[in-house]
Design a protein that fits this description.
Blueprint (H helix, E strand, L loop, with lengths): L3 E5 L2 H5 L7 E6 L15 H18 E11 L3 E3 L2 E2 L2 H12 L2 E8 L20 E8 L16 H4 L9 E2 L5 E2 L1 H11 L7 E3 L20 H11 L5 E4 L6 H8 L3 E6 L2 H12 L8 E2 L1
Parallel strand pairs: 1-12, 1-13, 2-3, 2-11, 6-10, 11-12
Antiparallel strand pairs: 3-7, 4-5, 6-7, 8-9
Helix pairs in contact: 2-3, 6-7
């Protein structure tokens, strides 16, 4: 199997061509409803028709231990009135399949917009939901995504294994926790992933995609939920960032994208990355 495979077309049609249980992980940033993009605008009803079929097919093509992450951001009908589509989708997906954990991506570099204008007084919309679907025992490797210890944790006395009782009722052995962080090489991540999104030289946005996902976020999810050498699928491949993350970490990649111009961007980006095995196929 080639390390990087791109196909042009509607993912609903192309997913049907994949065998059952043939994919190890899915990481994707789908289009959102009621958002104007160069590739068009989906109504909420059309978006649900699309995503329900994509989720159903995703469940079929994944291995029993595989899981899928759909990166989605809620939006507003107008300032102060949120659209409910994201939460309706989450409830449907949880009943249809299973949500492994609620996880969110926080972009701390989000610029101000109409929501936070002083005359409105709202906050910056800077969080996206990473809707993580799969079985309760799906594959994940926490060691791949450990965080660097804080200076406070590094300063904890490792030999102090006394059980501390906090006013809230929480108990903690601080020395033991610090020693485990030393042994593992980091601390367990929170379910809020802080990753800046900026148009750096190597980002999909800098290459011409108006809604690109940062490489660091794609890399994080690929390493976390896809075993080394496994196959990652992105049904909405866009400019190919998930595929590049897969290639750089020794995974294989299959991507579907209906916009030929984005496929050309993805192909050009992939040609700059040494392949782990096989050849580029588009």
């Amino acid at each position: 199997m080639n390390s990087f495979r791109l196909e042009v077309g509607d993912c609903r049609d192309l997913l049907k061509g994949l065998p059952d249980n043939s994919i190890d992980a899915i990481v994707t940033d789908p289009p959102y409803p009621e958002v104007d993009r160069p590739y068009g605008k989906l109504s909420v009803d059309a978006w649900f028709d699309l995503m329900k079929e994509v989720v159903t097919q995703s469940h079929r093509v994944l291995n029993p231990w595989g899981s899928a992450v759909y990166i989605l951001q809620p939006n507003s009908e107008h300032v102060g009135v949120m659209r409910p589509w994201l939460w309706e989708f989450v409830v449907w997906a949880m009943k249809q399949w299973n949500m492994v954990q609620d996880v969110y991506w926080w972009n701390p570099t989000t610029p101000p917009n109409a929501h936070c204008h002083r005359t409105v007084g709202l906050m910056r919309p800077s969080v996206k939901h990473c809707v993580w679907l799969g079985s309760a025992d799906c594959y994940r490797n926490q060691d791949e995504v450990l965080w660097t210890q804080s200076q406070g944790n590094k300063a904890v006395e490792r030999s102090n294994r006394a059980l501390k009782y906090l006013p809230s009722g929480l108990t903690m052995r601080y020395g033991r926790c610090a020693a485990v962080a030393d042994e593992r090489g980091g601390v367990t991540p929170f379910n809020l992933i802080p990753i800046a999104n900026s148009d750096s030289q190597n980002s999909g946005g800098a290459k011409g995609h108006g809604a690109a996902t940062p490489m660091a976020l794609c890399d994080w999810w690929v390493r976390y939920i896809c075993p080394p050498g496994g196959v990652v699928l992105d049904p909405f491949a866009g400019s190919g960032t998930v595929g590049l993350a897969a290639m750089k970490t020794g995974r294989k990649f299959i991507g579907f994208e209906k916009e030929a111009s984005y496929v050309e961007i993805a192909r050009a980006r992939a040609e700059d990355v040494p392949l782990q095995q096989g050849n580029l196929q588009t």
